[in-house]
Amino acid sequence: MSFSFVQITDHHLCDTEALLMQGYSPAYAFRTVMRHIAEHVASHIDFLVTTGDIVDNASEISYGNASQMLQLQAASPAPGPALVTLEGLQNFPLYFLPGNHDDRNYFFRQLFAETSPMPWMNVSFQHKGIQFICLDWGPQGKAIAQPEMLAFLTRCLQIGQPAIILTHHHLVPVGSRWIDAFLPETEDNEAFWNILTAHRSQILGIFSGHAHVTYERVVNGIPVFGLRSTAPQPVMQDEPLFCLQPPHYRLVTVQDTFLTTRIFEVPL
């Protein structure tokens, strides 16, 4: 059993493609990343997954713009896959997670109209013997572990399958005081990691966004991966400041129960 997929994250698309975000064009950057994926890896992967913050200021208009850009066809319930077509990708499967910038009602209504809106989107899907567990830490900037989310995680892991965990919020420090203020409180963090540690032999990795930073860590024997956004990235300092760096996407390959990743940097 072998397959690959690509993670992208934190697109912060606006109401129209022409709108800028502090002089930066999220739509242009997003299209450039998707074109790079189409040209370099699409023929070798089974699907894409975005780990949230699809739009910047959530509204019917901003999600309508995102759906139009992607020529989106919601082929299955949330998280997908929905089929997208742009920049050389033709009816390509894409799974969506919501982030803290994503209004849950608009998210479902515009991207997955056949799925009833959920206050927290804790769902899972299967692919070639691997369980993908999608966890929702809520619509706030700070990650909050709802009891329902922790119970859902426990139920999924009790199945005993190899698992990959997808989440918007970052769960390990990245070294910036203002970004790491969004980490879960100690009690929530300990509850989450206690569940994972009890099942660590079956967890292949955790993939998240939110911090807009690429990193790799190992926590309690579990690989944890963050990813640079397609939107502007933060300067690693204590006070909020963004800079312009080339966006990243992450190619993930699963071979039996072994997982490897590769980062692609996309010049704008």
Automatic annotation (TrEMBL):
Q: Any idea where the Calcineurin-like phosphoesterase domain is?
A: 4-213
Pfam families given in the database record:
Metallophos
Establish whether keyword Cell inner membrane is in the entry: no
Keyword list, A-Z:
Hydrolase, Iron, Metal-binding
Q: Which residues cross the membrane?
A: none
Q: Which PANTHER family match?
A: CYCLIC NUCLEOTIDE PHOSPHODIESTERASE CBUA0032-RELATED, PHOSPHOHYDROLASE
The entry sums up its family as follows: Belongs to the cyclic nucleotide phosphodiesterase class-III family.
Q: What is this protein called?
A: 3',5'-cyclic adenosine monophosphate phosphodiesterase CpdA
